[in-house]
Write a structure and sequence with these properties.
Number of helices: 10
Structural class: alpha/beta
Distance between the termini: 17 Å
Strand content: 15-25%
Helix content: 25-40%
Length: about 425
């Protein structure tokens, strides 16, 4: 029904982004973050600058910045008279998808993709911090924390702790473009509220975290304001580098968690790898070219990001179904397949957004795919197996501005599984 009409695929678009990334970058691709310095070291004092050059590694964490700081300490640097400089020139242009509206900018799914970034844990929500608020005593301000570092973010605590059992009205927000996290409302004694909140500028915020790590290992600074931007000069001295896990290892996690920032990072990385420009425009060009090579009609599609977050993305259901067919003949299909989630699977890591869908005894495990949701749009693309026939059906269902759309999509696919 209306299979050739382009619609917003939401996160189902990641199927095309993922297929293009596996083909273009290869399963052994690793992101690299490197540490340099220039100038001279005399009696433990670096009369020069420290540089970090990044390529967008979404798996980089605080421990890696701490290891970088320890490496500087080991080569005899106890004080830095210059600056800590970011070379994130691999990526250019906008840092967020056109689908990010200002009032949602602080939400985990709307993180900016920059070439120097960091994740708080193995969820790899790069460009975010894990913020926690805990009720203290009645009438008192609640406690708050953010793991190893606030990454330069300022906290305004307007909240109040109320009695146990009272209504929890706590909110944690960061306004668009702001460097302040505002805590407001009430939280009961002993209650905990957690939120993954985005950094306004992951490059700057991450380098502030790096300076804090350097202070922890005993490195001091002459300059009161440390962080700035500059390309690594050819004369700089290499200290160390850190490589990420391979794309092959990252891919299933990326797809199953539907990680938007990794999607856009891969898109920009493809643009840089093929055209030498790491931005949305050139990444989309690579993605579309790969779709064409697979046999898709990309002239009918509109793509503005790699995540599917923007409603401006338009791809027809038939083209996504065709994608599911064409990738079966690619060398990386096994890995592509491993990235799909399983309907009704009891392991939440394998089922994710399909955990509570297709749970009946005769539909469970009979559908693998990729879900998608943005305001007004639900999608489901993947592989369904007939319960009796054992036939495989490649499908894509998109529902826009239609009430009860998840249930409607599931009813269609249950019919396919049970009746075909």
């Amino acid at each position: 029904v209306n299979g050739d009409i382009p619609r917003s695929p939401a996160s189902s678009l990641k199927l095309l982004t993922g297929a293009a990334a596996l083909h273009t970058l290869g399963t052994n691709y690793r992101f690299t973050t490197s540490l340099y310095y220039d100038g001279t070291i005399t009696n433990g004092i670096l009369d020069g600058n420290v540089y970090i050059k990044g390529t967008g590694d979404p798996t980089f964490q605080y421990k890696d910045f701490y290891n970088f700081a320890s490496s500087l300490k080991k080569i005899g640097i106890n004080r830095i008279n210059g600056y800590v400089l970011a070379d994130d020139s691999v990526f250019k242009g906008p840092t967020r998808s056109k689908g990010v509206v200002p009032h949602e900018e602080d939400e985990y799914y709307a993180a900016a993709s920059t070439a120097i970034t960091m994740s708080q844990d193995s969820n790899y929500y790069a460009g975010t911090i894990n913020f926690t608020v805990v009720g203290s005593w009645v009438g008192g301000a609640p406690y708050y924390g953010a793991g190893n570092s606030f990454s330069g973010l300022q906290v305004v605590n307007k909240a109040k702790t109320v009695r146990k059992g009272a209504r929890n009205t706590l909110s944690i927000k960061r306004a668009s473009g702001s460097n302040q996290i505002v805590i407001a409302g009430n939280i009961p004694v002993g209650s905990t509220v957690k939120k993954v909140i985005t950094m306004p500028n992951p490059t700057t915020n991450s380098l502030i975290t790096f300076t804090e790590a350097m202070r922890k290992v005993g490195i001091t600074f002459k300059q009161p304001y440390l962080v700035a931007y500059r390309k690594v000069p050819d004369t700089a001295t290499f200290v160390t580098s850190k490589q990420s896990i391979t794309l092959g290892e990252l891919y299933p996690h990326f797809m199953q968690t539907s990680n938007n920032v990794i999607a856009d990072t891969l898109l920009k990385t493809m643009g840089y790898a093929v055209y030498g420009v790491g931005d949305y425009t050139h990444g989309i060009k690579v993605l579309k070219n790969h779709g064409t090579e697979l046999g898709l009609n990309m002239n009918e599609s509109t793509i503005v990001d790699g995540s599917g977050l923007s409603s401006l993305n338009k791809v027809s259901p038939n083209q996504l179904s065709l994608l599911m067919n064409k990738v079966r003949n690619t060398p990386t299909y096994d890995l592509f397949y491993d990235g799909l989630i399983v309907g009704g699977h009891p392991d939440s890591l394998k089922s994710r957004t399909l955990k509570n869908r297709f749970t009946e005894w005769n539909t469970r495990y009979h559908l693998l795919g990729k879900t998608g949701y943005i305001t007004g749009t639900h999608s489901l693309t993947g592989i369904a197996q007939g319960f009796y026939s054992r036939n495989l059906y490649l499908f894509s269902v998109m529902s826009e501005n239609y009430g009860g759309s998840i249930k409607s999509i599931d009813n269609v696919m249950k019919h396919v599984i049970l009746k075909h």
